[in-house]
Automatic annotation (TrEMBL):
<protein>
    <recommendedName>
        <fullName>CobQ/CobB/MinD/ParA nucleotide binding domain-containing protein</fullName>
    </recommendedName>
</protein>
<dbReference type="InterPro" id="IPR002586">
    <property type="entry name" value="CobQ/CobB/MinD/ParA_Nub-bd_dom"/>
</dbReference>
<dbReference type="InterPro" id="IPR050678">
    <property type="entry name" value="DNA_Partitioning_ATPase"/>
</dbReference>
<dbReference type="InterPro" id="IPR027417">
    <property type="entry name" value="P-loop_NTPase"/>
</dbReference>
<feature type="domain" description="CobQ/CobB/MinD/ParA nucleotide binding">
    <location>
        <begin position="5"/>
        <end position="191"/>
    </location>
</feature>
<dbReference type="Pfam" id="PF01656">
    <property type="entry name" value="CbiA"/>
</dbReference>
Amino acid sequence: MLTVLFLSQKGGVGKTLIITSLATALAMRGYRTWLIDLDPNATASKVLGANNPSNVNGSLTYLMGVARTVKVSTAFIEDGNISSIRIIPPGTSPVANPYGALPSASVLSSRLSSLIRGIGSYRARPNFILIDTPALSPALSPGLTTALISNTEVITLVATDEPGGMGWLGNMLEYASAIGPGRESIIILNRLSSIKGGLDIGVKNVIKILRNSAIEAAWRLGSIPYLIKDPGLSQFRRAIDELTALLERLNAERVWARP
Ligand SMILES: Nc1ncnc2c1ncn2[C@@H]1O[C@H](COP(=O)(O)OP(=O)(O)OP(=O)(O)O)[C@@H](O)[C@H]1O
Ligand SMILES: [Mg+2]
C-alpha cells in the first residue's frame, strides 16, 4: 500500500484534475485504489461520482473532530471492464472555513494516521491511497501540512511554470525533508506552454503536462479527461500513464505487489 499526497501552493493548478485521472488509471489497471478528498468543495468526489459527497461523516470533518466515523463511497468506471474506486468525501462541515477550525498538528497527525490505518486494515487491502487537498502552504496551515506530509510516503507537488513557482517547490522539498527522510517526491508541471526546459532542483521524478483547451473542455463537462480517447488528449494520457508507472514502481519497491 502506497500513500500519495497531492499538494500545491496555488489553487487551480490541476491537482484535482490530475488525481481523478490518476485514480481512474490505477483502478483500470486492477489496483485497489482509494481517494481521500480533503477539499471542502468535494470536487474530486463529485467528478468521480461518489454517492454521498454531502454526508457529514467525511475525511475533513473527521480531522476536525466533528465526525467520529467516516462514510466510504464507491465510484464505478466503465471502460470495457468495470473498475471501482473507494472515496472518502470531505464531509459537510458545520463551519464556514473548516481549515480555520482544525486542531493542532499532533492531533491532526494522530487522526490522519488512524484514518490511514483504518483503510489499510480494510478486508481488501488497498494498493494506493491518494489524498487530494485544496491549495495549502506551511505558512498558512502549518499543522495540516505537517500532519499530511508526516503520514504519507510520496508527495506530489503540482505547479505551473509561472515566475516564482519554482522557488515554492524547492522550499516545499526542504520542508518535507525536515519532517523526516525516506519520502519520495514527484513534481508535476502542469499547464505548460512548452514541454522544453529543465528544472534545476535535483528532483528526478518530473512529469510535464501541456496546457490544452481539450482538457479544460472535458473538465467543464464533468468528464475525466483520461477516459476520453481523443487524439488531442494523447499527451495528457501519456503523462498520466507515466505517473501511474512511476507509482507502480514505487509501490513495488516497497514489496507490496499487484492484487
Ligand atoms: N493542462 C491543462 N490545460 C488546460 N486547463 C487545465 C489544465 N490543467 C488544469 N486545467 C484547468 O484548470 C482548472 C483547475 O483545475 P483543478 O480544479 O484540477 O485545480 P486544483 O489544483 O485542484 O484547484 P484547487 O486548489 O482550487 O482545488 C480547471 O478548470 C481545469 O480544467
Ligand atoms: Mg482541487
